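User: Show me a protein chain along with its predicted structure.
Assistant: Here is one chain, sequence first, then structure tokens.
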Amino acid sequence: MSKMITNNQAFVYQIFYDEQSKAMLDPGFIPIDNTASERPDWYEFWVIYQFLMHNELHPDCWYGFLSPRFHEKTRLTSQMVYDTLNQQPAEGEVALFSPYWDWIAYFLNVFELADHSHPGLTDLSQDFCNLVGLDVQLRKLVNCASNGVFCNYIVAKPRFWDRWLWMADRLFEVAEYEAPEKYSQAVPHRPTEAPTQIKVFIQERFASIILSSEPFRVLTPAPNPGPLWLTTLFHADGDTVNKLQMCEQLKSEFCKSNDFDCLKKYQQVRKSIPFRTPIGFKVPE
């Protein structure tokens, strides 16, 4: 089962856990039944990890593994995803469909956000990177729309997924056998849900590490700057939207040019953005 994408194919899967989540699926995606998950503590990581370990990927095909809440979080349909992939040149490798464009624009990177929503995640993620030989300083990463992503909302070709699987193998080994007490510690998830083991949020940031550290040809759909995304951390007004878009543009320019003046301007604009404080969230200084 596949969708033709110009000269290539896309296998975009959507995971469900029960009848309720099954009812949320987009019929244009390929359903994956995870109702009998062996490891619910790993959430969708377990599904992606098992698929990549046991299936050979075609080098010219696109693969993605989305949660049942994909439409709820992004307001994107399967047809919109396939239309975006059709915009990719033949040599394209990664397409990002991240929700919360405003979070990516405001925070320096997805780990700075983690410091405020999942305490301890950045330090443990850095320990993991050091342990497996990744030469990266997570607190200094600069994420923009082309290298920052949430929720594993990625569709990519095998070169990306090979790198992801390399990191997944090492995280699984460390979290299961070397330091399970560290990686199973509970951290806040959503105010209405039980805490989640911290390893889940580390693996959700794999893509942001990979795309910030290695060259990939990335496409991102234009973000919808409407109020849907601006109800949790920011005010839904035109001035806030404009300033967040400026933050995104300045960080994107830095990622291309390494011009630190762009980062200085970004920090100045960011300081002028009013910040709302949801329950359990620490306001950045």
